[in-house]
Write a structure and sequence with these properties.
DNA polymerase, domain 1; hpI Integrase, Chain A; disordered N terminus; 358 residues; two-stranded antiparallel sheet; globular; three-stranded antiparallel β-sheet; mainly alpha; single chain
Length: 358
């Protein structure tokens, strides 16, 4: 039976961590060791203080088997995106490593005291509220699954708090800044120039995620209808419209630029790199930063910043929330509503600057 809270490890009274799953993730090996799957930040060390590759490899067999089974469940049964799977598995590897350090060798002894002790340790190392929220959510998903599988007699994750964390508003380009980035993009005749122009135009026109853009195939673009078929999170497919400039840029890339870079290994990939392989997210981030850096006073944003900007500009132009939700591929309207706050804040700022009695 699972021991009660405070049995093996002292709990942290009143320490409730909110539960919101965020985009992004970490790479995890077969035994749970963490590796980078994207540009690293200070939040990306999953195992926390004192952890090492050897520690992760020494997870008890019961823990390692459960972690592998949980990963298969996320991939095959829940059909989550690869980034989300890596993030969840990395978080649970950290939890199990913490439990092992506290003396647990059997999963059945995992209880609310262990969960709170783990989260308290992460909090003491300066983890942000959003990071703690994601890791708390991952723990609840894991303990719920473990309980259903019969590994735990009860679900300790249900005792964790679920209050929402404060969300910061995303940085976005103003419409004139977006125009300053895109308007100077001209056809210099080089394959890379054509590709970069098509990538930037398509990111801003459609608001797709960088992983979705890199996963596009040539046949996913319907030039006649000016729409793109996108495979999003959880394997959900959606059709996203694109404007005339984006359609023209993609057409020129496919007609002129792509044939000069494509190789046998390219397959059906819409965007390819200098060596012919499918364009990867890191290369896209690099080219976005490069072009935004040429615009004075523009915030230093990545591809997701263009996604935020596209959504904000759609709402400022009069698009309704449901349509923007569909375009962005959000499963919840609450996520899309974040952009209404961005638009209102920008409106207030303009009002304060322009109105004589503001």
């Amino acid at each position: 039976m699972a021991c009660q809270s405070g049995g093996l490890i002292g709990s942290t009274p009143g320490y409730d961590i909110p539960g919101t799953v965020l985009d992004g993730g970490l790479g995890v090996s077969h035994r749970g060791w963490v590796t980078d799957a994207r540009e690293p930040t200070s939040e990306d060390t999953v195992s926390g203080p004192g952890a090492s590759a050897e520690d992760a490899e020494r997870l008890p067999e019961d823990f390692a088997r459960a972690l592998d089974d949980f990963e298969r469940h996320l991939r095959s049964e829940r059909a989550l995106s690869s980034h989300t799977v890596r993030a969840y598995v990395g978080d649970i590897a950290s939890l199990l490593d913490h439990a092992h350090r506290m003396g647990l060798t059997e999963l059945v002894r995992l209880d609310i005291g262990v969960l709170r002790s783990w989260l308290a340790r992460l909090r003491s190392t300066g983890r942000s509220r959003s990071t703690l929220a994601r890791r708390s959510a991952a723990a609840r998903v894991f303990t719920s699954y473990a309980h259903r599988r019969g590994w735990l007699s009860s679900d300790p994750g249900e005792l964790l708090g679920t209050s929402r964390h404060r969300r910061t508003l995303p940085s976005v380009l103003r419409q004139d800044q977006a125009a300053a980035v895109l308007d100077p993009l001209t056809d210099d005749g080089s394959p890379r120039g054509l590709r970069d122009r098509a990538v930037l135009e398509l990111l801003y026109a459609t608001g797709v995620r960088v992983g979705e853009l890199c996963g596009l195939d040539v046949d996913d673009v319907d030039q006649e209808r000016r729409v793109v078929r996108v495979l999003g999170k959880g394997g959900r497919e959606r059709t996203v419209p694109m404007g005339v400039p984006a359609a023209g840029a993609v057409h020129e890339w496919v007609r002129v630029g792509r044939p000069r870079l494509v190789k046998e290994r390219s397959g059906p990939a819409l965007f390819v790199g200098e060596r012919g392989g499918r364009l990867n997210p890191r290369s896209v981030r690099r080219l976005v930063h490069e072009h935004l850096g040429r615009v004075p006073d523009a915030p230093d944003l990545g591809p997701h910043g263009l996604r935020h900007s596209a959504a904000t500009h759609l709402l400022e132009g009069g698009a309704d929330l449901r349509s923007v939700q569909e375009i962005l591929g959000h499963s919840s309207l609450a996520t899309t509503q974040l952009y209404t706050h961005v638009s209102v804040d920008r409106l207030k700022s303009t009002y304060r600057q322009a109105h004589p009695r503001a």
